[in-house]
Amino acid sequence: MVNLIVAFFTIAIIFLTVSCIRIYRRVPKTNREFMDPLSPGLKMLWPSIRLFAFYISENLSVDYLERISKKLQVSGVSYMMTAEQYFAIRIISTLFALSLTVVCSLLLDEINLKYLFIAAVIGYFLPVMTLNDLRKKRQGLIVKSLPVYLDYLTMSIEAGLNMTGAIGQAVERGPNGPLKIEFEKVIRDMRAGMSRAQSFRNMAERVQITEINSLVSALAQAEKTGASLGQTLRVQSDQRRVERFQRAEKKALEAPVKLVFPLIIFIFPVTFMILAFPIAMKFMYEL
Hints:
By secondary structure, this protein is mainly alpha-helical. Helix content is 83%, strand content 0%. The protein is built from ten helices and no strands.
């Protein structure tokens, strides 16, 4: 009887393994030759991500995938993964959070459905928070390097170059970062036959930053009215530099307020304990 059970169990494991292999082989291979490299964590999870993305993508609406694609584009990871693969990451994150919660609950000999629900919610929305952090970091880097690129554009325009040549000089000499990549895309669009105004509008749509929108509007207005591009860019550069100084000043003024919470919670209690310990010990020995 025991041998029969073992045999059935072995056959079931074999069929399960064969089925999993056949299911995975149905997933088409993706060509990542022109894609951004994956992080070490994503490399480990990529087979599972491809599997979930292939079998779940059919059930996702086109509007949802389009919204996700725009978010990926703004965050700068649109050349790393597709919208389907991003949704697969959310599913895997949810399953991992649930599994971790179940393991911890079994170790504590108590399974609470409330904790499972909280873990599922956190796991599902953790990739969203990560994507928002990437978007804020990328936009911050773009705003930080924008005055430098505007200075290069201004000097190149005033030296007699056209806009394409000026952007090329700015890209060649400017600092590395997401803004350099965006200007390279602008050059590519302009060389492909797209108008200058449309190329800049596409960049503004990709980054979705107020400063870039202001720059694009000023350039479009200057092109329509025949105003000097050099003067327009110089005004934009001065304005961006003033705004950068104001942001730095604002952060410096906010620092004392942000330090109040850690001071009250962590530093002050320890300080009071260190000061009160000798006094308390002295009273104890005197009694």
